[in-house]
Amino acid sequence: MSITSTVATNLSAWMSDHPTLKTVQQVADKSKVGFGTVRRARKGEGNLTIQNLEAIAGAFGRRPEELLVSDYKKGNVTELAAREPAIVEELLAVAKTMSERGQIELLGRAKELAIAHPSRAKAKRAK
Hints:
This protein is mainly α. 68% of the residues lie in helices and 0% in strands. The protein has helices at 3-17, 24-31, 35-43, 50-59, 76-83, 85-96, 100-116, 120-126. It starts with a helix and ends with a helix.
């Protein structure tokens, strides 16, 4: 998947999940990025500048690198928090002791491990 496709997929998912940023116009207004730029990003067209990537992610209270991760899955953190609150609390405690770069690396490694070790629900369905 290309970077522009990944951004489009993630932006669409974020917009679907967010209570007040459901339209391109709402995202454009909140991020102060032009309507056409947001529309093209959502369609996977054109090239976003780093500044626009930061502004769009910031409108959602997220980091720009999260728009670039190709395995964004809606609800995974929420589902984990409901199922395993102690694990989530422990991960948060560890993350709070780390630098921003360390936190980003921790998130990336957690995503790699999630791919390598699918959830128990998926494993049960595969049997």
